[in-house]
């Protein structure tokens, strides 16, 4: 006869302890991650389920607080930006997305898309005008690339910038733009006739109070509800000549910005997965089924073990990419786009699988907002396809390994 003592729990480890997270990054990186986690637990987590249910986010209020925390454009240097390591930025994204993907999306769009574009490609006037205010959360930015008919193929965009005397006049529509309806400034990408008759793509810094600019909010979302999403409509938006980003032409500009945002997702998706796993561990420990803890059943433990293994592999890959990215500042190789594709493809795909499996462990309770699991699962449906679908990243990796471009 089996002893009943085998059903009594012994000493438990946390997921972080199992993986040895504390030994994978520097003390400074770990300290920043801990500060963001504490901010999330105290300021964000108590309200996030309600914000998700309401489909609303107090963006202005949170922007100022996130600016004070120092996470807006935190991996950029100068102009009021914190100049932290890429690994620190990644870990901050992980901790923010452990609360909700919408919060990490806000920080990513502000820092890795809008601010990065201005920092990397803007004039000195652009940088001094916008970056200090954006780093402080006093000004909010958005990034206008995707169009209603052109997501994975940005080269097909129809938004056009035409010269009219010394000015530019922009016409077109952008879609699925995070922060769009609350932004003070938009970085908008458009085709022009600049490149000797060929329609070259250029970026423009567009104050959102410019006549002809509007940003109707997109409602009725079932994912990223705690995030502001809008359409951008440019109807004869007239800009001075110096509104154009002077330091880049072609798709290299927007694609390099997307790589910055994808890097944050590599870490961020793991935050959502970790929160699901920790929730499932707590729930199964307390939930009794057939007079014993759900955590004590073999099928429960195999699910937990498999999910933890995938999380650990994803985390180690993310930290490796962070160290590669940081190496560029000391003469190292840096991180290449196809390497970021490895991280985005794996970590989002595994994170959504973890969220779905954790939902099964919570049973019917897994579909309520009393627990975060279904919220994370719904959010990750968006993360799975934005900043490059899984298929696009598969083809990026395939091209790198075979030399053949299979996009067309």
Structure description:
- Its cofactor is FAD.
- Belongs to the acyl-CoA dehydrogenase family.
- Residues 28-138 form the Acyl-CoA dehydrogenase/oxidase N-terminal domain.
- One of its GO terms (molecular function) is glutaryl-CoA dehydrogenase activity.
- Keywords: FAD, Flavoprotein, Oxidoreductase, Transit peptide.
- The chain is of the alpha+beta class and 408 residues long.
- It folds into three domains: 15-135, Butyryl-Coa Dehydrogenase, subunit A, domain 1 (Orthogonal Bundle); 141-249, Butyryl-CoA Dehydrogenase, subunit A, domain 2 (Beta Barrel); 253-402, Butyryl-CoA Dehydrogenase, subunit A, domain 3, CATH 1.20.140.
- 51% of the residues lie in helices and 15% in strands.
- It has eleven helices and eleven strands.
- The chain has helices at 15-19, 27-54, 59-69, 86-99, 101-121, 124-135, 252-286, 298-327, 337-362, 373-385, 390-402, and strands at residues 77-78, 81-82, 141-144, 160-164, 167-178, 185-195, 198-207, 213-214, 229-239, 288-289, 292-293.
- It has a four-stranded antiparallel β-sheet with strand order 4-5-9-8, covered by helices on one side.
- Helix 4 crosses helix 7, helix 8 packs antiparallel against helix 9 and helix 9 packs across helix 11 (390-402).
- It starts with 14 loop residues before the first helix and ends in a 6-residue tail after the last helix.
């Amino acid at each position: 006869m089996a002893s009943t003592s085998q059903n009594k729990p012994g000493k438990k480890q946390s997921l972080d302890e199992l993986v040895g997270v504390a030994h994978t990054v520097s003390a400074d990186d770990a300290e920043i991650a801990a500060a963001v986690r504490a901010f999330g637990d105290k300021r964000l987590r108590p309200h996030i389920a309600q914000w998700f249910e309401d489909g609303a986010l107090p963006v202005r209020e949170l922007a100022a607080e996130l600016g004070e925390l120092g996470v807006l454009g935190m991996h950029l240097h100068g102009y009021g930006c914190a100049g932290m390591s890429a690994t620190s930025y990644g870990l901050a994204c992980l901790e923010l997305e452990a609360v909700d993907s919408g919060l990490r999306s806000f920080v990513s769009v502000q820092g890795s898309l809008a601010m990065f574009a201005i920092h990397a490609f803007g004039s000195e006037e652009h940088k001094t005008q916008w970056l200090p205010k954006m780093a402080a959360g006093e000004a909010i930015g958005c990034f206008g690339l995707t169009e209603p008919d052109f997501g994975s193929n940005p080269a097909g965009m129809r938004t056009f910038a035409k010269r009219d005397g010394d000015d530019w006049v922009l016409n077109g529509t952008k879609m699925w733009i995070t922060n769009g309806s609350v932004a003070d400034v938009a970085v908008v990408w458009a085709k022009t006739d600049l490149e000797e008759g060929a329609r070259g793509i250029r970026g423009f810094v567009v104050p959102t109070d410019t006549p002809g600019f509007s940003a109707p909010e997109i409602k009725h979302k079932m994912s990223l509800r705690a995030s502001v999403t809008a359409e951008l409509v440019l109807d004869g938006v007239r800009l001075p000549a110096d509104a154009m980003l002077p330091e880049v032409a072609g798709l290299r500009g927007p694609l390099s910005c997307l790589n910055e945002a994808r890097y944050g997702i590599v870490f961020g998706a793991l935050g959502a997965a970790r929160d699901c796993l920790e929730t499932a561990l707590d729930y199964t420990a307390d939930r009794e089924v057939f007079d014993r803890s759900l955590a004590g059943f073999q099928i429960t433990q195999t699910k937990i073990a498999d999910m933890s293994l995938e999380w650990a592999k994803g985390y180690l890959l993310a930290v490796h990419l962070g160290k590669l990215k940081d190496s560029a500042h000391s003469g190292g190789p840096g991180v290449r786009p196809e390497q970021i594709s490895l991280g985005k493809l794996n970590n989002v795909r595994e994170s959504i699988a973890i969220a779905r499996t954790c939902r099964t462990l919570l049973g019917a309770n897994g579909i309520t907002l009393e627990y975060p699991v279904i919220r994370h699962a719904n959010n990750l449906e968006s993360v799975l396809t934005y900043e490059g679908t899984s298929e696009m990243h598969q083809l990026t990796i395939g091209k790198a390994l075979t030399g053949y471009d299979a996009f067309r």
